């Protein structure tokens, strides 16, 4: 399950930069409303000087990480599950 949220738009002389937050989760029969989620921040840079049919530059970063992924890299769902597992382990240490 995922939810996309528009975060920001910034403009410079030569480009427009769009930022989106994609909130991912994996509901299960035991937890139809997941208690852990993963945020992925997607950045789109659209040139204002190139023709409109030119491709935009898209990159994304997983929450808590600094590595910037690009579209020429193969996306691996395992990356999402690793963050979900990490957050689940942390969440289980909390006592309410």
Automatic annotation (TrEMBL):
GO CC annotation terms, alphabetical: cAMP-dependent protein kinase complex
Pfam families assigned: AKAP28
Extent of the signal sequence: none
Transmembrane segments: none
One function term, GO molecular function aspect: protein kinase A regulatory subunit binding
Stored InterPro entries: AKAP (IPR053084), AKAP_28 (IPR025663)
Source taxon at top rank: Eukaryota
Protein name: A-kinase anchor protein
Organism, as annotated: Ooceraea biroi (Clonal raider ant)
Lineage: Eukaryota, Metazoa, Ecdysozoa, Arthropoda, Hexapoda
């Amino acid at each position: 399950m995922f939810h996309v949220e528009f975060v920001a738009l910034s403009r410079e002389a030569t480009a427009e930069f769009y930022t989106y937050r994609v909130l991912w989760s994996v509901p299960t029969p035991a937890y139809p409303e997941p208690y852990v989620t993963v945020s992925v921040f997607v950045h789109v840079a659209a040139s204002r000087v190139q023709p409109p049919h030119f491709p935009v530059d898209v990159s994304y970063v997983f929450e808590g990480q600094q590595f910037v992924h690009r579209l020429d890299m193969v996306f691996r769902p395992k990356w999402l599950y690793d963050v979900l597992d990490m957050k689940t382990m942390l969440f289980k240490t909390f006592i309410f």
